[in-house]
Amino acid sequence: MKKFRRSSRLVEMTQYLLERPHVLIPLTVFAEKYNSAKSSISEDLAIIKEVFETEGNGELHTLAGAAGGVKYIPKLSRSSALDIIGSICTQLSQPERVLPGGYLYLSDVLGQPAILHAIGRMFASVFADLKADVVMTVETKGIPIAHAIASYLNLPVVIVRRDHQVTEGSAVSINYVSGSSKRIHTMSLARRALEANAKVLIVDDFMRAGGTIRGMMDLLQEFQATVLGVGVFVESGEIEPAEQLVHEYISLAKISGIDPKNRQIAVQPGNYFTISGSH
Where is the signal peptide (predicted)? Predict the structure, then answer.
């Protein structure tokens, strides 16, 4: 068996851990993989742990005992999150994003892998200790966000459909009211997509009054599921509190005003820091 130099072993172990977030890895896996004593592996992990925590890239949890091992928990430092959210707000403030009717163009921002990874890590930092089973979103621009978050939490993604797909078998469908337009819409979820009593994280790209998110919550009741948390990329600040259908959520950015005539957008950080703390 090949004997790794320590520098090479550190690099490989770090990569191995990064690719397996929230997975408990026995020390014997590393000892056998790198033909090294457990004492040497423990020393290596101590170095990796120090670097992760010093740089604000996450935590390394070690569990002692025969059934123990090491687990990597992705996190993001407050300073890094501030920088990322500041950059997002700057991009969202660009005048050319204003569309007819006062809508905001977001697709290009969510099409940037670096931003998506950052969004995923930020929400994963907040939701890390909730022990969810799945990440759920509706089939909109929230899909890439859901996958980014799920990749850091090592969870499957469940997608709620606007229209039932025959290829997904039998499904549960409900009607819900859009909070802003008051129109009635339909959403459905395949029965096989979610186990009963599942613990769910709901995410969406944009929330005005929260009608879509409330619809997903109502749909989850049909599966006896529990909603552990709600994450929103951008929220609208133009909705009166009395019209808000969802009150407990975490947002990264907040649109406090759009002036279509002068093509001006007022954007500020969302409630990420006030709700989730400093991490």
Answer: none
